[in-house]
C-alpha cells in the first residue's frame, strides 16, 4: 500500500511539474505573440520584472518566471519602445486635432461674417436662410468643442506617458481644468439671435434676424453683436497650430539641443525664431490680418448708428490712422464697441511700430564681416590723416624756427604760431579718434580672442598635466629602484657585519 501511494504521489508530482512547465511555455508564447503584434497592454500590464501575476479577484496569485535563469529580461526595454511609439502617435494625433479645430473655428467665423453681411440684403420674412446658416454655425461650434475635448484627452495621455504615471487624475490639476473650461466657454460663443426670432415669431413667418436694428429689441441686437465679435476669440488656436506644425518642434536636433540648454519649446520661442528668420514677412502678415479684422469689427459695431463709419472703406481708413497713431480726427467712432476696437488698435499699433523699428534697425545694421571691412578702411584713413597731421606739425615747427632765426615780423610770427597750434590740435584729435576706433574694434574681437586664449590655455594645461603625470610616474619608478637598492645594500651590510663578527670571534 505504501508503495502504491508512493507511486501515486510521484506520478501526481510529475503531472504537476509537467502542467507547470506547459503553463510556463504557454505564457511565454503568449507574451511573445503580444509583443510581435504590438500590444502594449500585454507587454506591460501582466508582466512585471520577469514575473506573471494573475489578475483575478478570487484566484490566488501565480508567479512564473518568463525568462531563463542567467538571462536578462527585456521588459523594460520593450516598455521604453512602446512609450516612444505611443508618444509619437499621440503627437501626430494632437497635431491633426489642432488643425481640425482651427479649420472648424475659421469655418464658424466665415459663416458668421456671411450671416452678418447677407442679413440686410438677402434675408426676407418667411425665408429659412438665416436659420440654415445659424444651424451651420452651431454645428461647426459643436465640432470645434469635440475637437478641443479630444485634443486635451490626447494631451492628458501624453502627460501620463511622459511622467510614467498610471492614474489620469494626477494630470487633472486645477490649472488644467481652468484652461480647458475657459477654452470650451470661449469656443462655444456664437450668435443665437435667429433661434430667438424663430421662437418669438414662429417658423413660417419670422422676421429678418436683427437686420433692422430700429425695429427690434436693442438689448437683443447688442447681445447678437457682442456674440459675433467674441467669436474672434477662437483665433487663439492659431498659435497652437503654428507651434505644433513648426519645424522647431518637429526637429529632433532642435529638441535635443534645447533639452541640454533647458529651453522650453513654447509659442514664444517659435515666434522669436520666426521673427529672427522672417521678420518682415511675419510682421506684414500679422498687420494685414489685424487691419482687415479690426476694420470689419468696427463696421459691425457702427452699423447700429447712422454715420460715416458704417462703411468698410471708412473703417479701413480709421483703423489705419489709429494703428499708425496719427489720428487726423476727420472720422471718429460713435459706439462703445467701436471706441473699444479703436483703443485696442492703437495699443497694437504702438507695439507693432516698436517691432517694426527694431526690424528696420536690424536690417540696416552692418554684419560682422561688413563691420570689419568698414573699420579696417576707416583705420587706414585715420592713419593717413595722422601722418599728414604729424608732417604739418613738423613743417610749422620749422617755419616758426626759421621765422625766429630770420627775425621776421610779429604778424608773421603769430601766424606761424597759430598754424602750429592748429596742426597740433588736428593731430591730437586724429589720435583720439584712432584710439576710440581701436577700442571699439578690440571690444568686437574680445570674445573670440578670449575664447582662443582660453582654448590655448586649456591645451597648455593639459600638456603640462600630462608631463607632470609622466614625471611623477618616473619619480615613483626611481623611488622604487632606490628603495630596492637600499634593501639590497642593507642586506649586504648585514651579511658583511655578520661575517666580520664571526671572524672576530
Structure report:
- The chain has helices at residues 2-36, 40-44, 75-122, 129-163, 174-188, 193-201, 218-230, 237-244, 247-250, 252-260, 267-277, 279-302, 312-323, 336-364, 368-406, 410-504, and strands at residues 47-48, 51-52.
- By secondary structure, it is an all-alpha fold.
- The chain has a two-stranded antiparallel ribbon.
Helix content: over 70%
Task: Describe the main β-sheet briefly.
Answer: 2 strands, antiparallel
Q: Which ranges are low-confidence, i.e. pLDDT below 50, for 5 or more consecutive residues?
A: 1-6, 8-13, 35-75, 200-210
- Residue-averaged pLDDT, rounded? 76
Number of helices: 16
In order across it, which strands form the biggest sheet? Answer: 1-2
Number of strands: 2
Percent strand equals under 5%
Strand-pairing-aware structural class: mainly alpha
- Label the overall shape: flat
What separation lies between the terminal Cα atoms? Answer: 94 Å
Written as H for each helix and E for each strand, in order along the chain, the element string is HHEEHHHHHHHHHHHHHH
Radius of gyration: 44 Å
Topology:
Blueprint: H1 2-36, H2 40-44, E1 47-48, E2 51-52, H3 75-122, H4 129-163, H5 174-188, H6 193-201, H7 218-230, H8 237-244, H9 247-250, H10 252-260, H11 267-277, H12 279-302, H13 312-323, H14 336-364, H15 368-406, H16 410-504
Antiparallel strand pairs: 1-2
Helix pairs in contact: 3-4, 3-8, 4-5, 11-12, 12-13, 12-14, 13-14, 15-16
Amino acid at each position: 500500500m505504501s508503495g502504491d501511494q508512493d507511486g501515486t504521489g510521484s506520478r501526481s508530482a510529475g503531472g504537476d511539474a509537467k502542467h507547470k512547465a506547459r503553463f510556463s511555455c504557454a505564457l511565454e508564447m503568449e507574451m511573445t505573440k503580444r509583443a510581435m503584434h504590438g500590444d502594449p497592454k500585454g507587454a506591460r500590464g501582466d508582466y512585471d520584472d520577469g514575473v506573471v501575476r494573475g489578475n483575478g479577484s478570487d484566484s490566488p496569485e501565480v508567479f512564473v518566471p518568463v525568462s531563463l535563469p542567467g538571462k536578462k529580461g527585456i521588459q523594460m526595454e520593450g516598455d521604453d519602445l512602446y512609450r516612444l511609439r505611443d508618444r509619437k502617435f499621440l503627437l501626430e494625433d494632437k497635431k491633426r486635432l489642432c488643425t481640425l479645430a482651427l479649420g472648424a473655428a475659421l469655418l464658424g467665423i466665415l459663416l458668421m461674417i456671411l450671416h452678418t453681411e447677407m442679413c440686410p440684403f438677402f434675408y426676407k420674412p418667411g425665408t429659412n436662410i438665416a436659420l440654415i446658416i445659424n444651424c451651420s454655425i452651431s454645428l461647426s461650434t459643436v465640432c470645434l468643442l469635440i475637437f478641443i475635448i479630444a485634443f486635451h484627452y490626447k494631451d492628458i495621455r501624453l502627460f501620463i506617458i511622459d511622467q510614467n504615471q498610471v492614474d489620469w487624475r494626477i494630470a487633472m490639476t486645477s490649472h488644467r481644468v481652468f484652461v480647458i473650461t475657459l477654452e470650451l466657454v470661449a469656443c462655444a460663443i456664437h450668435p443665437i439671435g435667429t433661434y430667438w426670432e424663430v421662437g418669438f415669431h414662429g417658423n413660417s413667418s419670422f422676421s429678418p434676424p436683427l437686420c433692422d436694428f430700429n425695429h427690434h429689441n436693442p438689448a437683443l441686437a447688442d447681445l447678437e453683436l457682442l456674440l459675433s465679435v467674441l467669436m474672434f476669440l477662437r483665433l487663439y488656436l492659431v498659435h497652437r497650430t503654428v507651434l505644433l506644425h513648426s519645424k522647431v518642434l518637429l526637429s529632433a536636433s532642435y529638441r535635443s539641443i534645447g533639452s541640454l540648454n533647458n529651453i522650453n519649446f513654447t509659442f514664444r520661442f517659435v515666434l522669436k525664431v520666426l521673427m529672427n528668420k522672417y521678420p518682415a514677412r511675419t510682421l506684414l502678415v500679422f498687420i494685414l490680418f489685424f487691419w482687415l479684422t479690426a476694420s470689419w469689427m468696427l463696421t459691425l459695431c457702427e452699423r447700429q448708428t447712422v454715420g460715416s463709419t458704417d462703411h468698410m472703406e471708412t473703417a479701413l481708413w480709421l483703423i489705419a490712422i489709429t494703428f499708425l497713431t496719427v489720428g487726423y480726427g476727420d472720422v471718429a467712432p460713435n459706439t462703445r464697441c467701436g471706441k473699444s476696437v479703436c483703443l485696442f488698435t492703437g495699443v497694437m499699433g504702438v507695439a507693432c511700430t516698436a517691432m517694426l523699428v527694431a526690424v528696420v534697425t536690424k536690417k540696416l545694421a552692418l554684419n560682422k564681416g561688413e563691420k570689419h571691412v568698414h573699420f579696417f578702411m576707416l583705420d587706414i584713413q585715420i592713419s593717413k590723416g595722422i601722418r599728414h597731421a604729424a608732417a604739418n606739425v613738423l613743417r610749422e615747427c620749422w617755419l616758426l624756427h626759421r621765422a625766429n632765426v630770420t627775425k621776421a615780423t610779429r604778424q608773421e610770427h603769430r601766424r606761424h604760431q597759430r598754424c602750429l597750434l592748429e596742426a597740433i590740435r588736428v593731430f591730437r584729435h586724429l589720435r583720439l579718434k584712432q584710439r576710440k576706433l581701436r577700442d571699439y574694434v578690440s571690444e568686437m574681437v574680445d570674445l573670440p580672442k578670449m575664447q582662443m586664449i582660453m582654448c590655448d590655455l586649456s591645451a597648455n594645461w593639459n600638456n603640462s598635466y600630462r608631463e607632470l603625470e609622466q614625471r611623477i610616474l618616473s619619480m615613483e619608478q626611481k623611488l622604487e629602484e632606490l628603495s630596492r637598492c637600499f634593501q639590497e645594500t642593507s642586506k649586504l651590510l648585514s651579511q658583511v657585519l655578520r661575517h666580520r663578527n664571526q671572524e672576530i670571534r
